[in-house]
Amino acid sequence: MLIAQISDVHVGGGRYRQDLLRTAIDEINAAEPDLVVVAGDLTDDGYPDQYPLAHDELARIDAGHVVCVPGNHDARNVGYLLFEDTFGARDSRLRLESPEGELALVAVDSSKPDLDEGEIGREHYGWIEEGFAGEAGLRVFVCHHHLMPIPGTGRERNQVLDAGDVLSLLRRCGVDLVLGGHRHVPYVWPVAGMLLVHSGTAATLRTRAFTEPAYNLIRVEPDRIAIELRVPGGQARSLGQYPRAWPAELSSHHVEPFVPAERGPALAND
Ligand SMILES: [Fe+2]
Ligand SMILES: [Fe+2]
Q: Can you list the residues of the chain whose pLDDT is less than 50?
């Protein structure tokens, strides 16, 4: 299974480059991914004129399944409502058959209107847990913000406010991959049985510690997950190859030594 992860295209922004986005999408289409994840900041400021542009550009993605979540930039200026009008629900769940077994994906809007900080929110926990329940060969969680600090991103203020509870929840759910974006630095943190994978900015020159635009290709094989960073029109670089099976002591799907965050009823429906 091949997953393309693209984020932070910031359509309509001053440092947005349409040619980079088109090149990235052409390359992604040529790779024929099973799934494309667009992990937030599709627009630069959530303005009404930016959403149709973002929609038309991203409609060029040719894949059987495309999952989008909003980022903090999309939620500005009541952009979270425009996101729903343009791309559909801000939270979504997906089940996908693959040779490696069924893929279970849960994608959550971690943005808060007019704040750069994010939160998953405990009202989502039950719904997330339901999405990962049952048999699945691969479990993927998507949100725009970080669950762990990423190097080279300045002040450490980019984790979701409930990162600890969410990490614990996702580990309990047996999640394999967490896909996000936000601070435009491609990075992989292997944590407790999960790979937290962040893509850079695919289509802007809003680069930081990693100075080039970039997106990720994630190849999931029976015994390993290979993650490759791609610069649109440029180089490819490995972000590592990781075993599918973690030693039990490290994945540690054991009982937490504290009272887990209250789940609450699921608020969202598919
Ligand atoms: Fe961004
Ligand atoms: Fe962001």
A: none
